[in-house]
């Protein structure tokens, strides 16, 4: 049996925390000496270490009370549910941070009167994720062709306060898209992460999708409204699928659509040509290169 001071040293918890967990009912009331000092058993210590572990994982005390007495399968189910909750929280904090960064940057930019664009533009970056690179679930070397121009475009856009909105595939077992394609960009995996060469920076936005169309079941529309955006420059992967479907949806929602010709690509040249033709002929979207758009930002001209 060990005193509360010894238990605190073993577990890394403070005596106040240990007493608090006791009062909350997470551990049984300890035995006491004649002088009323608390004495803790090995079982008590192991339980406290479990509580500390679950607190590190950001479970609430009420949730921990259930977990401590749950069988392994129920604990696993709770972990999966909690992972989704944490993901939502991270997205909310990331969004709030991006909004603050965008606001502060725009104030600075406006005070310098550096850029005069008639349209409020955002860059849409679709499915720039590791599963498209060598070794990934949907690897394709054509992805590499768009990374250098996008690096330069994104860097200049950030300097000028142009919002960059990443729309990323994020799948879980049972998603309808997985019936068509092999498993890819599975939530929480390396393959679902954004490629380092075009990785987000502070102030950028990340929106997850499970379907081809980036507007469906996502916060994209809400984000664009908050940013007061009216023009979208599309970049990213699969000209003929996710880029086309999201761009066409944007058109129907009233946005002016611009396609970065060297900033989009797909699995084959014929598929890319089809996607560009579909958007160009049917919707007459504006086309420009990443360099043209960058020069627009630098020289205060506009193609839009």
TrEMBL record:
Species per Swiss-Prot/TrEMBL record: Dehalobacterium formicoaceticum
HTH merR-type domain segment(s): 1-70
rRNA-binding found in the keyword field: no
Protein name according to UniProt: Isochorismatase family protein
Pfam hit, one: Isochorismatase
Family stated for the protein in its record: Belongs to the isochorismatase family.
Record key words, sorted: Hydrolase
